[in-house]
């Protein structure tokens, strides 16, 4: 039986020919979709002193070849991994995942060292031993937890827990006066190496905390922790409070600057829009003005038409010479009393009066 995660670790390679639905390229090595169900356990892993072991059966270790081929379900390969597991992180979880998947049928036992052993051989821990036990218990890959695990594995301990293999990274672990505490395990053929996760470790996390100590101290003081609980002196406490106030003032100034920038940007955008609208309206106004009052504008044509109409009204045109003339009956002439002469006439009317005079004389002669 293969480990459940072996199919997930397959490399994904894109096919050059063809594509999947919706234009997505098909991938090689992708496992089929699984049904929606919970893969984790519903309860934390038990402690070793809470698990019954049938000592009636003899303790016979399985070989590496037998373990790789797969053992019966009632006889899983018992793999042991130990550590401090302080500030339990993803690097710890990945190491336990590798130990769990070393063989097709694996029962993983994890040993956690106590505070006394850790402080003597390695150094002070951030989490207490009970906190570290509890963190390992809730890792999904762990089947059993050994509290107060030994620093160096003895044959008696291996036989008591019926351990077949020990899993740990292959880097020599020098401690307790030994260059490698797993040397005798490797010589016995019981050691199986795992890979460390680069970029994360308990020491790295502690280094970050120490590097950013002021930030964390100020944050926890703001959350309500006392200076005594944080082991902060009176002067540093006042300094942190002052820094917090200064940061608040800086934040306010920054917020005001950002708001002012936004306001100025909005004003600029509105001013640009107003200028563009003003230019459009001004062009329209100038065009209308030129259309009305320009050299060839409508006003000039209106004035010309009005002038022509006025001139026509003042001096109407004479009738054409070709039109027929109507003969007028001569009007009787008026004579001055007691005078036979015609009344005086203007030089302009002499031509017309001459005919009248002639007419009058003829009438006198007839009388």
Question: Care to describe what's here?
Answer:
Residues 239-266 form a coiled coil. Residues 80-208 form the Cytidyltransferase-like domain. The chain is α/β, with parallel strands linked by helices. It contains eleven helices and seven strands. The strands form two sheets. A five-stranded parallel beta sheet has the order 5-4-3-6-7. A two-stranded antiparallel sheet has the order 1-2. Helix 8 crosses helix 9. The N and C termini lie far apart (168 Å). Mean pLDDT is 79; it is low at 1-27 and 355-367.
Order of helices and strands: EEHEHEHHEHEHEHHHHH
- What is Rg? 59 Å
- What is the typical, i.e. mean, pLDDT? 79
Inertia-based shape: elongated
Approximately what portion of the residues adopt beta-strand conformation? 5-15%
Number of strands: 7
| Helical run tally | 11
Note the gap between the termini: 168 Å
Strand order of the largest sheet: 5-4-3-6-7
Q: How is the biggest beta sheet arranged?
A: 5 strands, parallel
Give the helix/strand class: alpha/beta
Helix content: 40-55%
Low-confidence stretches: 1-27, 355-367
